[in-house]
Amino acid sequence: MINRKLIICCLFTGLLFYNKLAAQMLNLAKGKPVSIEPKISDNPGKHFVDGDDATLFYAYPTAPMNEIVVDLLGAFYIDRVLLRGFRGTDTLRIYAISSAGEKKEVFADVLPAKKLITFKPIEAHKLVVEYKPKDKTLMGELEVFAYEPQPVMVNQSGYNTGAVKRFTAPLAADGTPFLVVKAGENKTLFEGTIKDKIGDFSAFNPTGSLAYQVIVKGKDAGKSFPFKIAPYLIERVSYKPAMQFMIDDRCWYGNTNSFVPTVENAGCPFLGVAWRDSHQFSFELQALINLYFSNPDAFTVEQMPIEGQYIGLRKELPENTPEIVRLIYYAVDIYLRGKVNHTLLKEQLAYFLYAYPYLSEYIPKEVYEEAKDYLFSIWGNTDNSRWRWHDIEHSADLFQIYTIMGTGKGQFPPGHSIVPNLMLYEVAKREGRKDAERYWNAALKQTVWIIDNLDWNDPATTKGQRMNEYVTMQSLSYFFKHYPDKAPKKLLEKIRSWAEVAVKRSDNMWDFRKYKEDKWVIPDIKPASDPTFNPNGSFNEPGNIAGFPAAVLAAKQVLSDKKLKDKLEQLAVGHIDNVFGRNPTGRHYSYDACVDFEGADIGWFQELEGGAGMLQTVRGVLDGSPKEDVYQYDPYGGDPGHTEGWVTFNTAWMEGIAYRNYDLTALSVIGNLKNKEITLQLAAPLNLNPLVQEQAKIRVAKNGKDDTVVVLEEEGVDALYFKKVLNVEELPFKLIKGDVLTFSYGLGHFTKEASITIN
């Protein structure tokens, strides 16, 4: 299947002559004049260089030779060619023609496994591609790149105001100066020096949402892609594609009338339970609930109008139900109708039961009652047959201590049962059940087992859990944060030691946490008995990197060492930067990044055609990440090995966004009630439209009850804070001396609070 989405990469324009400074990795072929042989009326050569996946250019076997000549409109030193979306298997020949007319062959072979065609830098005014296929062949899009003596890798979308801002110049020497300028200009707005291949401009916090570039000086100069700096920019550009993926990737495309489950499978046409290619360890409900709870006002129907269809579900939800809540109910309805019983799918339903009081405005109570009765009745059952893929043999009795853990597939992360048991402990108390302590004891014993048995120095316990590594630290942090007085004595020490190992393994030019000291990326996960096993290989890990902020920020929540916490925040930002292009390839992880992610300049090398997820037309896919061969820095490494998007990568990314939301959110009460007035100030990622003054709603409770809502206004437009001067006598309840007013934003375990006592 060919990707039909329109690819419009807004690259930094202008001619890139080899003796001029320009943005890195500009596609020199895009939009340039093309001549082809043979000429076929419905097969124009411009389709080969227009950057649009929807326009197709083919090579034909009937021609003596298919020849495409691209005039680069200038002389360039080129060293890389990518045939993006090329489907051929026959020999390609590529020639460079210099400005003097000399023609030299630079490549003659089949497309390499790494997809990227590389050669020694050579001067070229024109590029010639010759191809004679055995069958009609889609040629894809031609990308041509100049040799970069001083590459500069940044987060292509940009950086948050007031937050960490770092870039990597992998060939720069210590002490090399760098400048930050407005995009396309030369006036210095900020300057610094490179240290250990990294430039830090965190202190540069301009107002507004303008585009900037980094210029690295020295013997060889380099310039980054344009990027923006704005309040909560990364959250703003992430919410929409994260949600769109979860809408687009659903089984039956949201029409559950086609849901006919059997004992063997859920009937999803392309494998999965509720999302295509989902597995029992995709953790969709946790990710959706945590993302919503971490910033509920960002997901209202006013902020995000409904895009998906929800046909065949048993309950009709109110019109004002946020799409993220509709997705939560969609999953719950499928799981209950399918009578899921796998360990990890039961855990997803535990999250729903815990979260229900905050969802009751939208989801009928009958759904909660059905889920409650079903889940409590099977929690201790051993059967896990509905449904499972790549599983490890185990009992689904969630009262036990699990002494096994998953492989690099990510199918059974240590500690997965801790939070679900703690949540059912709270639900059981809420429901007046007599067995609440069973759930508490199960969570406690599992936590103690991890403290006593997991060695963070063994990478199998950390990055070796691939995209679901975050589950372990999420679980330990949750326990300590919510039950500090009842937590095992060595729990905080265990969390701290994990953080120290993570920091130690991240001391490199990318702020990237490595697998171990001498290996960057998770190893090949196939068994050694597999004939295709590569002991020196690596595996696709977008989810591990995109989800890593959840792990480090969960640890940060409970630690007190400021230096360590600051480093964890730096790593959280660094890993999102890696997803958005600050990596050895200089590419965003999404093949369709230029369409799906605001500000992205160049997407991933390739996407998988077909596959169980059928993701070619799905928005917000994280397709690939740099493999071992590309680190520490190899511009010719390309993308060897397997590349494929996956819902399990995206749910890990959503968890990373959720924990980042919580980390950024702060609520304060300013004043001492003179004249009965106080000032409420909220910092939260709600600057979703930089042109509009937006609002935020916070809850107010008196002595822990009598909730009401107060609306705060953004300080102008494109601002960091929302404020309101509140006269407490305007609140809808009577206040007397000693009453405590508690103001809060966020829901459940993602709530931030501030209180004041009436005196």
From TrEMBL:
InterPro entries: Cellulase_Ig-like (IPR004197), Ig-like_fold (IPR013783), Ig_E-set (IPR014756). Residues 1-22 form the signal peptide. CDD domains: E_set_Cellulase_N. One of its GO terms (biological process) is carbohydrate metabolic process. One of its GO terms (molecular function) is cellulase activity. Keywords: Signal. Belongs to the glycosyl hydrolase 9 (cellulase E) family. This is Alpha-L-rhamnosidase six-hairpin glycosidase domain-containing protein.
